[in-house]
Every structure is written in C-alpha cells, then in structure tokens.
Amino acid sequence: MRDEGGVPVPGAAVTLIAATGRQLARATTGQDGRYEVSAPQAGSYVLVGSATGRQPRVATLSVGATPLDHDVVLAGSSGLTGTVLADTEPVAGALVVATDSRGEVAQATTSGEDGAYRLTELVPGSYTLTASAAGFQPFTGSVEVGADGLTRQDARLRSAAVVRGTVHGGNGAPLADARVSLLDAAGNVVGLHTTGSDGRYVFTDLAEAQYTVVATGYPPVTSSLKVDGHGTDGFDLTLQHTD
C-alpha cells in the first residue's frame, strides 16, 4: 500500500470481500506498507484499501493457486482548506462544518490558533460551508470541491452586535418584570427579554440592521435604533403610568 509518490502507507485497512459481498479477511498495513490477506480458495474477489485522509481504492482480483502480489495506490482525498478570519485577524476555535447537498454534515472541525482549518475527508461535489464562533455572526457559503487536491475557501466572520440597556420606572428606579421585545424591519420578533430586579436587558448576536425596541409592563414604549457592527450600549427605556 503506497501513495502517489510511492511512499508506503502504514496503518491502512485492507479488506477482502467475496463475490457475494461477505467479508472474508481484514488486515492492517505495517510500517513498510505491506499487507497479507488469505483467500479461502481460487476465485474472484474484491479487495478494498482505505486510510484516513485518503480516497479508498477498490479492485477486483482473480486469485489462483499461487499467491498474488497486488499493490494498492491510495490517492490523497479531496477536501477543503482555508482560514477563518474576522477582518484580517484569524479566529481560533471556530466551528467549521461542511454540509452536503442533502443537508447532512459531511465533516466538521475547529480552526487552529492561526485560524486555519482542513476538511480532508470530503468526496468531490457541492457543499455548504459554515463557520461560527462566539461573538460573531456565522459565515455561510457554497463551495465546489474538486476531485484533485484541496479546494481553498476562507470564511470571513463579522462581529455580532449587542444591544443592552436598563428599563426605568417613572421615578427613575430600575423596573423589574418589564418585557422588552426586539423587532426587525419587517416586524418580526428576533429577541425577547424580561428584566430582573436591576431592570437590565440585553440582546446578543445581532446583525447590522434597523430594529425596533418595545418595552411593556406599563403602557408600552417603542423606540427605533440603527445597529452597527459594534452594537448599542446604554439604550435605556423609561416606563411610567399615564394619568
């Protein structure tokens, strides 16, 4: 068992299968890449070679009365590689997931200290690549993985905005049990928070957009705000009884 450059591949799995599909023997290659499996009798068999990070190889062999010497070449697997970035800075520990056309997870990993990731067990085809990390909006993109080598696709994350503040009563004291809703430009509720004794509320992981904040508990108060990449801190609200 060797790679395309002729270097032995140790630790590869070799399986001998009968024409009926039944497994007959299994072996693991040594440091020199050598393997040996025994066929019960002369006949036609299927030999499967596989190793982590490499494309499996299947061969149909005709075995006679004398031992058959059959070399297997395991090519490097296709896959994805790239860097998870926020602006120009690498993002370590980001979750990177490749999902196939059926929506199933094909492979997942986390980015290293330098933001780099590698997904090396993918077959050629179309995938959706997602990357996510705390404090950032997730990245999603479509990518086509080729049959030869690794396809490069960087994932660029944008900082997630935060909106926080305090709800006060008419006397200026923090107001507990006030319900604060965050609505997007279409009027959909994207966040809901009930204040505690400190009157504080917070909404996290927000995209840059126009929002409406609604506080209820007394007659409601509605305020609009524009959220940028840094978010808004100290967006306080005051609720009070009307006469």
Describe, in short, the structure shown.
With 243 residues, the protein is mainly beta. It has strands spanning 13-18, 23-28, 43-50, 57-63, 79-86, 89-90, 95-99, 105-110, 116-119, 125-132, 136-137, 139-145, 150-152, 155-159, 161-168, 179-183, 189-194, 200-206, 209-216, 221-227, 237-238.
Q: Can you tag this structure with a few keywords?
A:
243 residues, mainly beta, Immunoglobulin-like, six-stranded mixed beta sheet, four-stranded antiparallel beta sheet, 21 strands, 49% strand, elongated
What does this structure look like?
This protein is an all-beta fold and 243 residues long. The protein contains no helices and 21 strands. The strands form 5 sheets. Strands 5, 6, 9, 11, 13 and 14 form a 6-stranded mixed sheet that branches. It has a 4-stranded antiparallel sheet with strand order 2-1-3-4, with no helix packed on it. The relative contact order is 0.12. The model has no long low-confidence stretch (mean pLDDT 88).
Largest sheet data: 6 strands, mixed
* Number of DSSP strand runs: 21
What is the beta-strand fraction? over 45%
Number of domains: 3
CATH superfamily of the largest domain: Carboxypeptidase-like, regulatory domain
Distance between the termini: 87 Å
Structural class: mainly beta
pLDDT averaged residue by residue: 88
